[in-house]
């Protein structure tokens, strides 16, 4: 009988960054998300939450504040062996709760999996209605302007 794994959710720390990058970029290699550099991850480390199973990071998610009334959920990444166990769902709920506690009225995201995020109440919007994102970050992406991601937003 297999022992049930215990999951721990916590804010990310410096030691998590290389593992988070490997996790995110392994999914990005399969066109499931966009890659992140070590520099990007260190720069936004305080945005990230991680999930641990048996002491090892197996998932991550970030809540990045864009403006006084808007934040972005980024890099929801779960290692393949831990997918479909509710980790992504829990990480998204943690990020949304943090946004509520901060008093943010809206959270958006860009995704290749819009059906997954519709379950949380996100709705599809035009990416160009997010000028802060498009002109501060998307413009520097190697896939700009046609990354294929779907923009979605949730009113809290």
For this entry, what is the oligomeric state of its chains? single chain
Main β sheet profile: 7 strands, mixed
Give the N-to-C terminal Cα separation. 42 Å
Note the total helix count.
Answer: 5
The total domain count is: 1
Which architecture would the CATH scheme give at its second level? 3-Layer(aba) Sandwich
Number of strands: 7
CATH fold group: Aminopeptidase
Q: Quick one: overall form?
A: globular
Order of helices and strands: EHHEEEHEHEHE
List the helices and strands and how they pair.
Blueprint (H helix, E strand, L loop, with lengths): L6 E5 L5 H12 L9 H6 L4 E6 L2 E12 L2 E9 L8 H16 L3 E6 L2 H5 L4 E3 L5 H6 L13 E6 L1
Parallel strand pairs: 4-5
Antiparallel strand pairs: 1-2, 2-3, 3-4, 5-7, 6-7
Task: Pick out its properties.
29% helix, alpha+beta, 7-stranded mixed β-sheet, Aminopeptidase, 156 residues, globular
Structural description of this entry:
The protein has 156 residues and is an alpha+beta fold. It has a single domain (7-155), classed as Gcn5-related N-acetyltransferase (GNAT) (Aminopeptidase, 3-Layer(aba) Sandwich). Helix content is 29%, strand content 30%. It is built from five helices and seven strands. The protein has a seven-stranded mixed β-sheet. The protein is globular, with a radius of gyration of 15 Å. It starts with 6 loop residues before the first strand and ends with a strand.
């Amino acid at each position: 009988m297999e022992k049930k794994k215990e999951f721990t959710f916590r804010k990310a720390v410096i030691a998590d960054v290389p593992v988070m990058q490997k996790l995110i970029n392994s999914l990005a290699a399969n066109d499931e998300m966009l890659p992140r550099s070590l520099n990007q991850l260190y720069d936004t480390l305080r945005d990230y939450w991680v999930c641990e199973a048996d002491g090892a990071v197996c998932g991550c998610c970030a809540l990045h504040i864009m403006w006084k009334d808007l934040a972005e959920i980024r890099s929801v990444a779960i290692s393949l062996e831990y997918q479909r166990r509710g980790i992504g769902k829990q990480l998204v709920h943690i990020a949304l709760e943090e946004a509520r506690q901060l008093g943010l009225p809206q959270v958006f995201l860009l995704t290749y999996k819009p059906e997954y995020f519709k379950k949380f109440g996100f709705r599809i919007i035009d990416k160009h209605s997010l000028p802060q994102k498009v002109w501060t970050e998307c413009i520097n992406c190697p896939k700009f302007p046609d990354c294929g991601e779907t923009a979605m937003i949730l009113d809290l």
